[in-house]
Structure formats: structure tokens, C-alpha cells
Amino acid sequence: MRSPLLSLLLLASPLLAADYYVSTKGSDTNPGTLTQPWRTIQKAADTLAAGDTAYVRKGRYRERVTVKTSGTAPDQWVTLQAYPGEEPVIDGAGLSVPEDENTALVLIENRSYVRVQGFEIRNYRARKGNRVPCGVFIAGECDHVEIRNNRIHHIGYRAKNGNAFGLAVYGTSATKPISRVIIDGNEIDHCQLGNSESLTLNGNVVDCEVTNNRVHDNDNIGIVFIGYEDTCPDPAQDRARDCLCQGNTVWNIRSYGNPAYGRQYSAGGIYVDGGTRILIEKNLVHHCDIGVELASEHLNRTTSEVELRENIVRHNRNGALFMGGYDSQRGGTADCFVHHNTFFENDSRRDGNGEILFQNFVTGNRITHNIVVANRQNLLLGNAANSHSGNVLDYNLYFSRTDAEASEWTWLQTPYGSFAAYQTASGQDAHSIFADPLFLNRRKYDFHLTATSPAIDSGDAAFTPGNAETDLDGAARIGGTRVDLGADEWAP
User: Fold this and answer.
1) Which of 35, 73, 132, 182 is in the most buried spot, having the most CB atoms within 10 Å?
2) Phi, psi (rounded to 5 degrees) for 4
């Protein structure tokens, strides 16, 4: 007869969780212990049960890994992770990319409560055919998946019409979204992406977090939240939504030289393409083609209700912020809130876009409490179309290296040669100011405010921080009598 104590121990499933080990010196016929480890990570993925962890020792593993088991709530995860202090490599060099199927060096499809952390994932490439190499691919119906502290690099497709992803999340089900995915602390770099993106959340994806990642030196879009690409068969759910994009650093994102784009500079650092209710905060984006895009590539569809706040966007080639569809056959941008960002000397190619560019179908957006500093082009606001309405710009600080009377603005496709002329013609920015923001050290890109900055206490007296808002450093958003302008809130 089983004792009551033994019954309790058997019911307490965390106590039954097992640790296993993988090493390049092991064998898949071993028991998977520290002294007798398995040889392949796939053996671990085939064997792990809910609550189990496989610790992978350093070395090069030339294999694709498919997670076969889900964990269970609340704390019975299936975990693949690097052995403490070591960095194992999942290397796709020499592996062929299958055609017409979901494939990745790490594939998580229709699985939940899965963690992958601490790996280097690299060298998965295709050059022809209907093949899509991917570093990490999460697809189907998944919830509670964590991808943490991995480096994903040199994933690529080099033909003109190909696609590749560093890390992709594709919600393809109409009955259950992908939810509670956390992508944190990863590095994604030197990928050749064709028409696709470095890090993408596409389709029926909800309540996910993209935080503290470094995305750089890739030849197309950095981080993107996508809708309306028929990824999910239900159009009402076919858009990434209610997600967080926080604390990421994105740089050197450029499409020039990508076979799919040729000589175009069109890659955004952070892009919402048809997504909704995305919070984008405390990110640094620099030296990309476009800093941030809030747009839609699908006619009669919009990116909507995005909040862009407390970001530093500097020295991007074509502009800091693009809103609306890039031509009249695309969609638009509606009901977004852009506030407390610092935009500094973007449009470095001087293409006439300025710091902020209104494209097609920009409606009902609010742009307030930002610091906007132009380069020697002196163009603060560009306007490529006249199909925008109901937008509000106010309580911003603008500056260029010349004075307000030599600054340049475009509103409803009409250029204006001074701040005052723009204010009068547009009816916008009535409470905004044109002044040097007096950053702590602009040459070293330290955009904290000095004690005499005109941005201090220059915000709307009625402004109330919402949704747990703090400044770029996590300080209280109102440090004085009124809220400050820009990403930093000055404090004594």
C-alpha cells in the first residue's frame, strides 16, 4: 500500500523533473547524465518531458532541432539551455534547407511552455528554390515560449526573390493565437533576409514581448509586427496585437545591396506593418534606413493604436519616423500616439523626408512632447501626400542648426520656410517651441537634459502619464511642475 507521503511526492510534479546533459563527446545511447551525456540536442528534444531541462555543453552541433514536447502550467517547462558558463553552437553549415515546409535550426510548432536559452545559432542558408531558412521559428498554436540570450547570425537567402528570418513567430491558426512569447536578450546579426525580416511577429500573435535584444547589420527590417498577410485564415485575427517592444537596440539595418531591393534604402529599424495596440518604448534605433515605421502595406488596412514613447532615434538614413502607406495603393496609420521621443539628425542622406514624414492615409494620430532636431538639411517635417487628416501635433520642441526662420517644413505637400509660417498654415504645434534642447553632450549622443534646457516643464499641464510610463531611464515621468519634452525627464 502506497504511503500518504509517497502519494504527495508523486503528485508534486516539480519534484519529478529531471536534468539531462548533451555533449559533443556523448552518445545518444547513453542515459543523458552528466557523466554519460547524449550526443545530439535532438535526442534531448525527443526525450524531455514536462518539467525537464537539457543542459547542452559547449561545442558545435550540426543539426536542426525540433521541439517535440510541451510543458505544462504553471512551472513545468521543457527547457533547452546552455550549460552554465558555456555557449553551445547549433550550426547549419552544410545542412540543406528543405523546400515547402516549416524549417529552422530551432523549430517550435504547436508547443507550449518551452524555453530555449544561451545558444549560438548560425550558418543556415539557401540560394535557390522555395526554401526559407530561419534561425528560430515559432509557428502554429503556441503559448508561453521563451527565447532568451541566444545569438542568431548568418542566416540567409541570397537569390532575388527569396526569404529568410533570424527569428520568426507566425500565428497561423484561426482558433488559437500564439500568445505569451518572450523574446529577450538575444542578438540577431549579419543575416541576409531577402524580402523578410530579422525578427518578426506575424499573423494571429497576441500579448508577446520583444525586449532587450540587439538587432544589427542585417539587410532588411530589424523588428516588425505584421498584419494582413493571410498568415492566419481569419482576417479579423490576422494581425500582431497587444505586444510590447521595449529596451531593444537596433542599428545598421540596410536594404541596399540586398538582391530583393537592389539600390534601395528602405529597411526600417522598428516597423509596425498592420499591427495594433503595440507599445514601443525605451528603444535605441540608429543608422538604419528608416528609424521607426508605423504603416501598412495593404490597401484599406491600417496600423492603429500604437504608442511610441521614450525612444532615441538618431542618424537614420531616410528619416526618424515614417507614418502611412508608402504609396496610394497601400494602407495607412490611424489613432497612434507618438510622444516623449528624441529624434536627432535623421534623414542623413538628405532625401527631403525630414525627421518625421507623413505618407499616405495618416489619420487621427497625436504627436506630442517630442524633441525633434534636424541635421544641416534643416527639414523637420516632410509630407509626401495630402491624404491625411485629424492629426494633432503640439507641445514639441524643434531645433535645427539654423534659426527658426530658416527651418523647413512641409504640410499637405506645401513647403514652408519657417516655423512660424508652418504653424500659421497648418494650425499645428501652437504650444510647441523652437529652441536648442541643451542636451548634456550631443557629440557623445547623451540626450539627457541639462538644468537650463527649455524642454524642462514645457509639456501640457493636463498631461498625465499612463500605462506605467516612466522616462528612458525608468525615472518618474513628471519630475517638476509639468512633464518635460523628449525621452529624458530632468531631475535635480
Assistant:
1) 132
2) -55, -35
